[in-house]
């Protein structure tokens, strides 16, 4: 693992640790009892240091641990939760002091190690706060949830995305749902509707920055708790430009989600004449952020990479890839 | 709610509770730490009772709870997990003792109250035990399954599309056994599949099978998405139904049956059968959507047979 990869892994583990400590529940209650004040979205480092100190008094690892004070651990906490320095021993201390169960332990350690088959992912964030606010304002409160989704993405012989086929099962969480929002970070696309979809209500409209939205009308209105399976195909349009001028977005396929999506299957298939040199499964720090954790993925005999997660929430995940250097395979094949 | 419906709701909640405790992850290690031995696919009741007892001692609901011991709670656990008796207070105890998060709590309560339309269904049975035994142990589990069934203008099954996410439970899984109650069909494989291994063979008296080769062998815990289509060539009209048999368990099942506009049914029912060759034990009338289709999504199924059946106009 390169230094950059190791850094990304530590960052990912730190982001997940922060998320665990911030999430309402047992861990948060543990440190909040020592916090004089608590700000939404922020961990109180001194209060966390207090939890660690209490743990060390009861379970000292060295003679000095028996008398350690919270303020002596504050910098360790700051460095750990910010991702600047999260050593293996510090991670172990957090795990032990907060009594994290095996699943969380395993996930944190796998993120830290830089390899994971994580099946549940709650990420740092999906969008920047200002974009989130605009999207929330445009969409209003959620009226459906996704209980199953398959994103199957096809990359063509020219190395550009051809289409994504999406199969999605939605559950109404309000009465009389007759549409669901379709959101994309480009409007250079064509949406072809299939089963479960009655039509599109208008064109894609910009709701924030590069985020566009249209409504897919459902084949039947749903009562509270009812479900429906939808299938739709998104085809992409790209400007005619040389490969070296294409941006990073053409070498990735990602799913960004704020709300929880259950049973998430993502598959990216490459054209046999244009195969990538490497493919990585990755987690991004939001739509505009960098990759914070990744692992190399293998292609199967159909030149496809796949990943399944039981649920995703508030994260950006997907595959990105690198093309071999030199002329296009496709050009070679046709010359 | 009738007594039968209430029973079904408690059974559903119990099945989902069992699934949560069995699934690798956060809850299983909680009870496994107290299990002297652990059998695959089975919850150790005494170990679960130990978790409950410890919780009660720390958070007593009555004075007697402070002295709670696991063996006193073993019967409660057995009755709860088997679905024989899952009272409101017992479900509440499980939820608190295992610290289920809000989403799971909500789902368990909705199932228990019978107000969830995303159902969990356990039993009564999938097939005769001798038939199940002949099929051998499972080498994969189904994480997500979409059964999309299309009928032609003559009212006969035309095509069936399956999208299937499987997880290997053994190392080196390189094939998936496709099974059907007829061999009057053709299977065409798509993504995730490398081809078929040989012709259909008779796996049991009533079941025909063919192995689908995976696009890459899976190690235990790895997943793959398969897509395959089935075309039917019945010599005689088959039963007016699509039935999915669940021998062990399936998560995230989506069943959709689409009728041809030239041949619409008079009525369609969502049904539960008493196994693959049994009668309907429960049914509920459903309406077609604007694409002449019916659909049902189930979070978890085990040891059952479910689907749609219909009458022609």
Model regions low in confidence, pLDDT < 50 over at least 5 residues of chain A:
328-335
Structural class of chain A: alpha+beta
The order of strands across the largest sheet of chain A is: 1-13-10-2-3-8-5
CATH top level class name of the largest domain in chain A = Mainly Beta
* CA radius of gyration of chain A: 23 Å
**Count, helices of chain B:** 7
| Architecture per CATH nomenclature, i.e. the level-2 architecture of the largest domain in chain A | Sandwich
Element order, helices and strands of chain B?
HHHHHHEHEEEEEEEEEEE
Question: Quick gist of this model?
Answer:
The complex is a heterodimer of chains A (335) and B (313). Chain A has 335 residues and is of the alpha+beta class.
Characterize the structure shown:
The complex is a heterodimer of chains A (335) and B (313). With 335 residues, chain A is an alpha+beta fold. Chain A folds into 2 domains: 3-116, no CATH class; 129-334, Immunoglobulin-like (Sandwich). Helix content of chain A is 28%, strand content 36%. Chain A contains 8 helices and 14 strands. A 7-stranded mixed sheet of chain A has the order 1-13-10-2-3-8-5, with no helix packed on it. A 4-stranded antiparallel sheet of chain A has the order 9-14-11-12. In chain A, a hairpin with a 5-residue loop joins β2 (144-155) and β3 (161-172). The longest helix of chain A is centred in the N-terminal third of the chain and has 20 residues, at 3-22. The radius of gyration of chain A is 23 Å and the shape is globular. The model of chain A is unreliable at 328-335 (pLDDT under 50). Chain B is of the alpha+beta class and 313 residues long. Chain B folds into 2 domains: 3-116, no CATH class; 129-312, Immunoglobulin-like, CATH 2.60.40. Chain B contains 7 helices and 12 strands. Chain B has helices at residues 3-22, 27-32, 45-58, 70-82, 88-98, 102-113, 129-135; strands at residues 119-122, 140-151, 157-168, 173-180, 185-189, 193-202, 208-218, 223-232, 241-258, 265-273, 280-286, 293-312. In chain B, the strands form 2 sheets. In chain B, strands 1, 2, 3, 5, 8, 9, 10, 11 and 12 form a 9-stranded mixed sheet that branches. A 3-stranded antiparallel sheet of chain B has the order 4-7-6, with no helix packed on it. In chain B, a hairpin with a 5-residue loop joins β2 and β3. In chain B, α1 packs antiparallel against α6 and α3 (45-58) crosses α4 (70-82). The radius of gyration of chain B is 21 Å and the shape is globular. The relative contact order of chain B is 0.14. The model of chain B has no long low-confidence stretch (mean pLDDT 88).
